[in-house]
Amino acid sequence: MQATMRPSKHILFAILTSTLLLAAESASAQQITGTPGSPSATTTINGKQLPAPAPKFGGVIKDNAMQSKAWWPPRIVPPKDSPNILLIMTDDAGFGVPSTFGGVIPTPTMDRIAKAGLRYNRVFSTALCSPTRAALITGRNHHSVGFGVIAEQATGFPGYDSIIPQSKATIGRILRDNGYATSWFGKDHNTPTYEASQVGPFTQWPTGLGFDYFYGFVGGDANQWGPNLFRNTTQIYPWIGHEGTLKMDRSDPNAEIWPVTGKESSWNLITAMADDAIDWMTRIHQSDPSQPIFMHYIPGASHAPHHPTKEWVDKIEAMHLFDDGYEKLRERIFANQQRIGVIPKGLKLTPWPKDILTPWEELSPTAKKLFIRQANVFAAYVAYNDHEMGRVIQAFEDLGKLDNTIVIYQNGDNGTSAEGGPLGTFSEVAFFNGVQPPVDVQMKFYEAWGTEFAYNHMSAGWSWAFDTPFDWFKQNASRLGGTGQNMVISWPNGIKDKGGLREQFLHVIDYVPTLLEVTGIAPPEYVDGIKQEPIEGTSFAYTFDAKNAKAPSRHKTQYFEMMGQWAMYHDGWLMSTKVNRAPWDAFGEANPDPLNNQIFQLYNLNESWNQAKDIATQHPDRVKKMRAMFLEEAKKYQVLPLNASVGARVAAARPSLTAGRSKLEYTRPMTGLPQGDAPYLLDTSYTITADITVPEGGAEGMIVTSGGRFAGFGFYLLKGKPVFLWNLLDLERIKWEGPDALAPGEHTLEFDFDYDGLGVGTMAYNSFSGLGRPGTGTLKVDGKVVATKKMEKTIPIILQWDESFDIGSDTITGVNDADYSPPFPLTAKFNKLTIDIDRPQLSPADIKKLEEGLKKVEAGRE
Question: Which residues form the Sulfatase N-terminal domain (predicted)?
């Protein structure tokens, strides 16, 4: 029998010592309070695995409770003295917007944080909404987390599918599982459009991404007077009961200005959101004053529609900030920036783009009047939002939390938007359908600008000025006007350098590693059993220390790409593609080879801080090297395949609850189905059939509607008469109406539309020739034709996206204010609704023609 081998005393001692050292190391890393096993015990976790594994039961279990010892698992808390975090980011605001960085719009809240902490003038975004937001909350590049473009443009490639992978957990999830109370207020533009309905799944909603409380809207923008609003995943209508008496008189189509009278609503989302945030944080504090909170506060301001209150419009108008036009505004902002030192001395402005933006002095007096109104409303929106965010910050102070709160206030998720085009627009919905209303049409909405009767956006001339000292706009990833933001941070307990300026290169992917470093929380290795991919950002916590005020940037390399325009930053150098598409030019033919078919520019940002001096011809080798570097980064971060199309991607097919279905049936009323999952009735033939029963005394109300005041359709009973109406971008309303009120009893109402076009099949060829074509509508009652009318043009791309598909009533706004006001419930009995969709089929001749066009496109790539 083989003898059992015994370890020597020295080996036993070494093993014991090693075990004790490991235990001591573990104990020092883990912070425990209270008696272990007691109800009040707490513990930190190493955070490698989220959620943390359940601890082993530490009590005693016998046959009966009297002989047993209870033991409670400790409550998980963050490391001692972990700060509260308020992470603010505004929307569509360029470098020159806030007063803190030389702008003319008063932003005293941002000023307050800057004076108490630090200013950063080299903070970079992705140039677009959803992508910046996804990068900010994950610490990864936007393509890495599926947001190469906005959710509404998603395509079936990993870098563009609008799905944040489970292998890349958000800062909300990490902090929550480490004991923080987490919340998200405002804009959620990171839920796939096809998962935004009440069907779910809700894994890509804020509450599914680690934020335990959500109050806001899902989508790119929202009517601030009546948004598509959610608390967690439940749609709410808190403005009901606060409606004003505002009316817009459109009775005279030839009037120069349509009068607006009455009192505006006492409810606006900008204020309501601050109220709700203060309520949430107070509730957490009163429940457990020791629990730190993480509040992600991202209002819709200053994204279109610009919807401030009249009080703020009056304040800004009294300041006469914009009377001398956008070029003078740009010069004034630039002078301010030099005076307060937030840009380098000796900097020169790039030229005014006379080829795309009409100089102020060449505008008509009417255009100037309209444009000044546009700018005043935008500025009022910015100032109003800053004021309300100030109330939230003050609430931290009132609760005694501000000293240990990191307040991060980033101005803009991208540069100022130019999606209103050179003239601006009374309705941004028109822009997304390729329509630019002329000045005389927009003047009719002069008094409505900023109210619930406009979905307004300003002239791109103002946008260019608000991006000072840079040029170009939101969407332009190759120019700093699209990506150059600024930011302020205060943290009284952690930042002692008051009012300092930091000029290190930062990107929005840097926030997550910075917050993890200052909280002492490690990035997880596994979340829900899924191995996590590395965080791609670089912590900038080192800049908090005054001795590092001039330290070299630790974020050395960063790519930029948006819809075929791109740039490569490396250690102070920026190689970029020359802008080949203005943001409002979303429907032209796209660059077939955006990787190579470009004019390349090169800038030494240490000498040409705002891309004023292109030195590409002097350094061809560096250009070549940085092009190769971009391709490496593009392969690494899922940027490929590059795609320069814009509008085509909005209209392109993507998952939907109605995808592939040509017949839809509904037997009960329902509301709130978002456009991403609603029946898509654009660029197609269709038939809508409603079976209803009219009671004695008649009936009225909405049968089915999709969209709202600024684009959509409605099928309803008006004083008993059947009506089908198309609202064409609030520019025209086409109505089919039966001559007689329906008698009591059962009726079948039918609207049939025969479309004259090729439809969305042309999207594969990047052609818009088949979209927005004419068609003929026929209204029938019990099989009898009662109205026939031809529409000479139809909506080509999208309805009003923040309005839903509703059956049996109408939510938020109606498609025709002259006929009814929501909710306009159907008083007839609803029996059944059927929608038959007959998508245009391409004929052999059509296919041959389009294939020839495609060959030309392919030839251009060679």
Answer: 83-521
- The residue from 539, 572, 604 where one domain ends is 604
Give the whole-angstrom CA distance, residue 603 versus residue 86.
35
Of the two residues 239 and 13, the one the predictor is more confident about is 239
Let me know whether 112 and 218 are in one domain: yes
Cα distance between residue 280 and residue 733, in whole Å: 43
Helices marked H in 652-732: none
In a domain, 858, yes or no: no
Asked if pLDDT for residue 765 goes beyond 70, the answer is no
Average pLDDT over residues 1-26: 37
| Amino acid, single-letter form, for residue 392 | V
> Do 728 and 806 reside in the same domain of the chain?
yes
CATH number of residue 724's parent domain: 2.60.120.200
How many angstroms separate the Cα of 791 from the Cα of each of 159, 727, 735, 775, 841? 39, 11, 10, 5, 21
Torsions phi, psi for 829 (to 5 deg): -75, 130
Pairing of strands 721-728, 732-737: antiparallel
- If one counts the domains in the chain, the total is 2
Q: Do 692 and 784 fall within a single domain?
A: yes
Please check whether residues 574 and 684 belong to one and the same domain. no
Please state the rounded mean pLDDT for residues 175-197.
Answer: 97
In a domain, 14, yes or no: no
Residue 754 lies inside a defined structural domain of this protein: yes
Tell me the whole-structure pTM to 2 decimals: 0.94
Q: Which residues does 279 contact at the CB level (< 8 Å), separation at least 6? A: none
Question: pLDDT category, 841, cuts 50, 70, 90?
Answer: confident
What is the CATH classification number for the domain harbouring 180? 3.40.720.10
- 154 vs 143: CA distance, rounded Å: 11
E strand or H helix that includes residue 742 = none
| 61 belongs to a structural domain | no
Residue 34 has what DSSP assignment?
S
Do residues 374 and 302 lie in contact, with contact meaning Cβ atoms separated by under 8 Å? no
Contacts of 260 (CB under 8 A, 6+ apart): 246, 247, 248, 249, 447, 448, 451, 453
Provide the residue range defining the domain that includes 781.
Answer: 656-846
Query: Three-state DSSP class for 157?
Result: coil
In this structure, the answer to whether residues 712 and 793 fall within a common structural domain is yes
Residues 303 and 422 in one domain: yes
Say yes or no to pLDDT of 587 above 90: no
CA-nearest of 233, 234, 236 to 209 is 233
pLDDT for 364-420, tens place per residue?
A: 999 999 999 999 999 999 999 999 999 999 999 999 999 999 999 999 999 999 999
Q: Are residues 596 and 672 in the same domain?
A: no
pLDDT, tens digit (0-9, with 9 covering 90-100), for 138-172:
999 999 999 999 999 999 999 999 999 999 999 99
22 Cβ contact list (under 8 Å, min separation 6): none
- Position 846 scores a pLDDT of 62
Q: Residue 522's CB: how many other CB atoms inside 10 A? A: 15
Instruction: Specify whether 569 is located in the same domain as 704.
Output: no
Q: What is the pLDDT of residues 88-131, one digit of tens each?
A: 999 999 999 999 999 999 999 999 999 999 999 999 999 999 99
Mean per-residue pLDDT, 439-446: 98
For residue 849, what pLDDT is reported? 64
